[in-house]
Amino acid sequence: MYKLKQDNQGVLRLSDTAFIPFDPANSDYQSYLKWIDGYEPQFDTEKHQMQWVKTSDGNTPLPADE
Fold first, then answer.
1. Residues with Cβ within 8 Å of residue 36, at least 6 apart in sequence
2. pLDDT digits 0-9 by tens, 15-59
3. Per-domain residue ranges for the chain?
4. Which residues make beta-bridge pairs with 5?
5. What global pTM score does this model have?
6. Cβ of 2: how many Cβ atoms within 10 Å?
7. What is the 3-state secondary structure (H, E, C) of the chain?
8. Which of 3, 41, 53, 63 is the most buried (most CB within 10 A)?
């Protein structure tokens, strides 16, 4: 899950409190966009790799603190 930053310059990933800037070249930002679209990373035991799986219609980050 993610939380918007008050300065609107990025998001906070709540699992490890990492700041993720809104930068298309940032792989964490790319993961955030997939999460917004309703995808979650899951491990495929047959292929032995992580894959993005559609699990919902979409997700919404928590609002920024005021």
1. 58, 59, 60, 61
2. 999 999 999 999 999 999 999 999 998 999 998 999 999 999 999
3. 2-54
4. none
5. 0.83
6. 20
7. CEEECCCCCEEEECCCCEEEECCCCCHHHHHHHHHHCCEEEEEECCCCEEEEEECCCCCCCECCCC
8. 3
